[in-house]
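User: quick one, fold this
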Amino acid sequence: MGAEVHEGENDPGADVNRGVDREFLSLERELTLLLRRARASSGEMARQVHPDLEPAAYGLLVCLDDSGPQRATALAAYIGVGKATMSRQLRALEELGLVTREPDPADGRAWLVRLTEVGRTRFRTVRAGRRERYVRQLAGWDRVEVAELARLLRQLNDSAEA
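Assistant:
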């Protein structure tokens, strides 16, 4: 009389999820949430560097601060965009006074992009604020757990590049 209802039985999407490990479904959910929050955070940080800075360009500042002057082609590969998009983003960053281009001493035909002093100062101030938020958010975590999370995220990022 009373029919037993099993999880997903009346869910039309359940067939899609059958055979997929719950761990991977959980991973997808958590990564989706993390990426949504990261996009929002990047937009906020970009505006803190400069009100007219596009959120996508924030990653260029990260790369330039971490690695020093780079060719536009290397930056495009790092971000995963084409030459036209990179040229537009770099032009906007130059107009905002955050980056400058200089001849590449190794190849006079090429140009290197580097942070200006203003760009470096603004970027590092915002980055320091973000780090302080991480410290507050993870205050209850053991440092070994924080290091393990960083290691696992690096492993995930490395596998995505392969």
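User: anything notable?
Assistant: The first helix runs from residue 14 to 17.
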